[in-house]
Amino acid sequence: MKITKICCIGAGYVGGPTMAVIAQKCPHIQVTVVDLNAERIAAWNDDNVDNIPIYEPGLSAVVAEARGRNLFFSTDVEKAIDEAQLIFISVNTPTKTYGKGKGMAADLKYIELCARQIAQVAKDNKIVVEKSTLPVRTAEAIKNILDHTGNGVQFQILSNPEFLAEGTAVQDLLHPDRILIGGDTTPEGQNAIQALVDVYANWVPTDTILTTNVWSSELSKLTANAFLAQRISSINALSELCEKTGADVNEVARAIGMDSRIGSKFLKSSVGFGGSCFQKDILNLVYIAKSYGLNEVADYWEQVIIMNDHQKRRFSTKIVQTLYNTVASKKIAFLGWAFKKDTNDTRESAAIYVANDLINEQAHIAVYDPKVSSVKVLADLDYLETRSHDANVAQVQSFSNPYEACQGSHAIAVLTEWDEFTTYDWLKIYDGMQKPAFVFDGRNLLDRNKLETIGFVYQGIGA
Length: 463
Ligand code: NAD
Ligand code: UDX
Description:
Belongs to the UDP-glucose/GDP-mannose dehydrogenase family. The chain is of the alpha/beta class.
């Protein structure tokens, strides 16, 4: 099948950038991204391309090039499904917050809704592609729904997980390490795989396009995220031992990273990993393992989350202990709220949990993040339901100027590794603070020697 029209359901952090790059690289294919969220679609269509709802370096330019040419954003889900030969499902698959599997399993209600809508609308054969991260064997459920339409339409289900990381999404999409496509071993399944391979082959070298069976593809995505998160929890576990022994975790990471079998990436000790994927996907993996009775497998992976929770808690505890065991009524400035630099995404950001702990100790939190709004900061805290909205408003204030956020504070906590933090006039910041002036660097970002020379009491992670 030659693909000329693609539809993507879900205009989020994955659907938006991925489809923008497909449209840019395949001008002969019409790509329509649809979403139920009218506000989000309006933002994608904003005349000023800098107002698109997702901040990613380089994304505005890609959207500007393709939008209106062969890239469209719309709320008309049915029309886009009807017209497309190939439909990506890129909706959210959060951890369940209710019922069986609450707090562990992936919530597949949005996926099922998409499948039912496709089944209802489709009048000709379609390839349906799982772009969302899904539990292994989800394609079976989607196929069951699609195969019971009774209107003779044939569907092929492919798994094509996305490996982009936020903050580098455009570069990751332009130069992926690999593209993974899982499909049926039948001739129809292989034809569907080939159709999707042909789309990617417009810019991705074909020897990096991997094809597998559906189940391997689904499980590889959960596995990749589990391995990546495990490296962070491993180095973070050792950061605590470093603090006790006089070893420096940065030096340890460098020393082990030069072993080509270990590799140097993803060994940066931090206040703990965040983001919408790692925790959700590992919990999902743990849940799947348990559902097959594989308790040792489940326990093994669960430790990655336990260690990450410990690392976040350890950071807030260290702040309280260092500030003479009380932060009540003290102003603590947070540099950064996003879960990593170069994104406006705050989902599961360590900053949220550290702030929550400190507010429990009655601290006042002053937040500066170059890309996160005050509304988002409050919404993140409200979501935890630890206290009322008004109580959060009373304890947290956002600033659009980092110097104002730090003015009069007892301590600064670096929660995100934004490059601009290293360029500040730290002497000016020091002069405006209460003394002793503390810096808790949750990203080992700042220059310890420089700050200590100015007079700061500096504490990083794992050193
Ligand atoms: P997101 O929440 O940013 O976007 C999902 C969008 O889907 C939302 O805008 C929502 O309104 C829309 N939606 C939900 N149900 C819908 C329906 N029935 N019809 C139309 N629109 C609907 O989520 P995301 O971060 O883009 O993640 C999407 C999937 O990709 C998840 O499964 C996630 O695990 C996976 N993933 C995410 C990343 C990442 O970095 N964020 C990376 C790889 C994979
Ligand atoms: C992750 C995966 O990397 C990506 O392949 C997948 O598609 C989605 O999930 P993302 O969550 O966007 O991507 O960002 P990532 O760069 O993986 O960072 C996740 C968290 O780990 C961030 O909070 C980051 O600060 C933290 N991290 C990362 C560390 O603490 N140390 C590291 O060495 C690397």
